[in-house]
Design goal:
The chain is an all-alpha fold. It is built from 10 helices and 2 strands; from the N terminus they run αββααααααααα.
Length: 309
Amino acid sequence: MTSLLGRDRSDRIYRRVLTGFALILPALILIILGVLFFNALPALKRFGPSFLWTSTWDPVAEVYGAAPMIFGTLASSLLALLIAVPLALSVAIFLTEFSPRWLRRPVAFLAAIPSVVYGMWGIFVLIPFLRSYIVPPLKALFGWTPFLQGVFYGNSLLAGGVILAIMVVPYIAAVSREVLLAVPTSQREAALAMGATRWEAVRSAVLPYGRAGLIGAVILGLGRALGETMAVTMVIGNRHDISLSMLQPAYTMAAAIANEFSEATTATYQSALMEVGLVLFVLTVTVNAIARILIWRVARGAAVGSSAL
């Protein structure tokens, strides 16, 4: 009996310790949010909501508006998703449904490459490749559209979007793979029993069942793209301007903080950058929370689990 009581006491202590550790993460998020809000408060009071849709960024006159940064962040991330999602989903479907067993390995190892290495590769390989082989035929075919106007010098929204696409493919593919593995085998067997081919079973049974999780994987990739800093900073051009053309330089919120925070010599300048960080933080946390909820809806109760979830 004494042994059982001691074991029960140990279980309670262990549970409370784990609960305390689990509460540290949301507490840390709230602390970060509080610090950002407190430091951004002077800019919030001075510029109000117009900070989000005005374009002037003048440290000399101390007038700040983050619209070009927000536009550049969203545009580069959405461009990255347009490129990455078809490739990542194709990889995930192949690995789970068609590949030989020895090839079914996670693809997230590419995520271990430092972003600065991606940036260097973008400068010395990607930009010359785009300049010589991709942009000329694109301009010849679609140069009449506003999305391919102007001269392409290299550092641009297009280069930033492509480098982001390469970086988020492993994330989307790895999570999508786990979502597809979480689909019950009975879904596949029922479709095959009705006479469907392997591809028809995937299209009619597996993908609809895991739709919410796949959307969550895509949104998770979007969250990863929104917060990327170094690689994008090195290739996007860092020009505080809004242009519909993918060939022109752009700016992102993360790049602005990385480039300008050490140069912010006034309290208003620092507060404006803190407000940019606050906007980025809220946007990224919201996107990641939505992605996790969607993935959990598919994966809960499944026998297959993964750290990617």
